[in-house]
User: Which sequence fits this backbone?
């Protein structure tokens, strides 16, 4: 009985410890799956109208999200209403946009920092929680570099922005001017906290083109012509944007069977093996 209890303790210790280590490497796809939000483009405008009354705009809510806080939002996807989508091709991420910066908006997506802002006009400012994993919320936006493409999407258009402020640009928490209008320019501003929560990371892009999704589907054959006619900067890669559009119809993230299998299976096998080795050693001593 004593040996059984000891072996059980060793097994659980190794199993749980290994899972915690494995979680650091595999959490991205698991979190993305369990907190994904269905993107229904046809509902964007209706969702906006229905969200206006209850939207919160308290910036103090935009801080750090603790390691397992996202569990609060598992299964909540049916209760939230995206009003658009942010796409960052260089990070291969897609983030649902909600009206306001209240919870759970900035825990499973990005929230608008001002009430009456419009895509493609003025200063369209978004905030979200920081995350150590690029691809989850605004995790990784510190890696966005000047010249990278940022895309907003509503029910009818893609709004193409070229990054003009990036490269891990840090600002102080008290900066409220980041949502101010910039005369003569339409910009997109992204904001999240730094890993320690003491400052903010800001990214800003300038609008270079507004393109209908339907028109964009055949652009790949006319990439050079499009650059010339639209006056797009040479850093804007039309092929890259078209590839984004081709993925728009397949937003669902598949169940991460491989990640979950590794996360549970490897620690189980490792703990079983070590307990087995330990029991062999105990048997030899008895002999």
Assistant:
């Amino acid at each position: 009985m004593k040996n059984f209890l000891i072996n059980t303790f060793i097994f659980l210790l190794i199993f749980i410890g290994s899972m915690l280590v494995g979680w650091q490497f595999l959490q991205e796809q698991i979190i993305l799956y369990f907190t994904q939000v269905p993107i229904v483009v046809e509902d964007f405008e209706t969702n906006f109208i229905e969200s206006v009354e209850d939207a919160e705009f308290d910036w103090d809510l935009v801080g750090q999200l603790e390691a397992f806080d996202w569990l609060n939002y598992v299964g909540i996807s049916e209760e939230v209403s995206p009003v658009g989508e942010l796409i960052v091709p260089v990070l291969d991420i897609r983030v649902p946009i909600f009206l306001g910066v209240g919870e759970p908006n900035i825990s499973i997506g990005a929230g608008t920092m001002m009430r009456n802002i419009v895509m493609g006009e003025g200063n369209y400012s978004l905030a979200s929680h920081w995350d150590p994993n690029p691809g989850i919320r605004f995790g990784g936006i510190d890696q966005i570099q000047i010249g990278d493409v940022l895309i907003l999407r509503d029910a009818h258009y893609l709004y193409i922005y070229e990054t003009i402020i990036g490269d891990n640009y840090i600002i102080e928490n008290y900066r409220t001017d980041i949502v101010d209008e910039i005369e003569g320019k339409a910009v997109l501003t992204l904001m999240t906290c730094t890993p320690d929560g003491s400052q903010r990371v800001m990214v800003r892009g300038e609008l270079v083109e507004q393109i209908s999704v339907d028109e964009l589907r055949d652009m790949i054959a006319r990439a050079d012509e499009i650059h010339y006619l639209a006056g797009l900067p040479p850093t804007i890669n039309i092929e890259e944007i078209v590839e984004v559009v081709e993925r728009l119809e397949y937003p669902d993230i598949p169940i991460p069977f491989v990640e979950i299998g590794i996360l549970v299976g490897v620690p189980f096998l490792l703990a079983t093996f070590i307990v087995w080795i330990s029991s062999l050693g105990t048997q030899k001593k008895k002999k």
Remarks:
- The CA atoms of residues 112 and 126 lie 5 Å apart.
